[in-house]
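Catalogue entry: protein

Sequence with per-residue tokens
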Amino acid sequence: MHNPTQQQIEALAKEKGIDPDIVIAAIEDAVLAASHKYYKSDENLRTKFNSETGQVELFAVRQIVEDVSDPATEISLQEAQDLYGDAAEVDMEIEFPKSTEVLGRIAAQTAKQVIFQKVREAERENIYAEYSDRVGDVVPGTVKRFENGDIYVESGHVEALLPRREQSRAENYTTGDRVRAVIREVNKNAKGPQLILSRTDPVLLIKLFEQEVPEIYDGTVSIRGAVREAGDRAKVAVYSRERDVDPVGACVGMKGTRVQAIIRELRGEKIDIVEWSEDATLFVTNAISPARVQRVTVVDEIERVIEVIVEDRQLSLAIGKKGQNVRLAAKLTGWKIDIKSEEEKRREVEAQLDGLGAGQSATLILPGLDEDQIRKLHDAGLNTAEELSAATSEQLLEVAGIDEDAAWRLKQAVENQLAAQRRAAAAAAEESEAAEAAEESEAAEAAEQNEAAEAAKE
């Protein structure tokens, strides 16, 4: 049968989720600290917990030596043999019991503090060991209290912190509310809460999809990216490993049931589910959803710049409220997205072609060309539409260092400009001829009238 102290130790260890030996070691350390404070001696003190009596026994330890230099910590071989006979040898230690009853109230207070500190340290070590591998997991909890906008959440036997910066602006909580959050980090330091939670991390969105969509859980459909502006809008890129499984349809669910469950959990945050693609133009087209795209052109492969043209009436939808839609699409795809309406693009091309016709090609950014390439064309004497039209694709490749596709686009632009010039010239010629004919007609009519007038006089 355990003594009452042993039972209390085991109860405390069970409540805190720690090993009883840690509590016993803490008690021994506490009594040792109090003993040093009380006796104020140079003795080598040692404590041992007696599990039978429930008492902590205190000893002054002395080492057996040939010649004693420090009587407080050493004992001579002769003296030791007088006490214990021939069994005593040099370097052995002898323990001399000392009273702990004299330690009093101050010692009890010291003991209490040390035990509390040791138990707390052991608790924190246990929490760290339990949760350090679970960063990114979603855990349930109950709202416990509020401090300066931060929320303290009770999750299992641990008190976690949901800081204000990790809260969605669409959410409000009251004490006792149930909340699910992702573990953002686990602290090992001695102060403050150890678990830091988040409701804004995209990982929360991914985990919710894993819980709601069996195809994601079993690996048929994978999430290739997720971005959020918590409380407003999110975009998720999904991909199916099997041809006959529609990844977007699987995530949306029958009549939208699956995605609606996630939207409810995130308090109405809008979620765009788009299909991932290796093809940048296709992926960007999908990511701009719900806006419809007319065409997509890669402007700069190295800098990852892409141009998206949409119908005039789709422009505001594509850009989104305060640029949110295009901003999220850019984060999801990893491309800088330049969105233009059909009208904007038409005006831009016209300006480029007008400049080209006026011989200003060196200052223009033409389709598929950067400023350096245009300068090279200018230096080579290819300044006007006629000169560029006369140049072969090979010359353009050699002079400006552009690829075949860019050379073809440039030639097309130049041909369009020349055709426009020819049409304008033809129209101007027709107008000139008509004007000349009108003048001749007017002159003939005037001459006839003069002749008639002269005849009348006669």
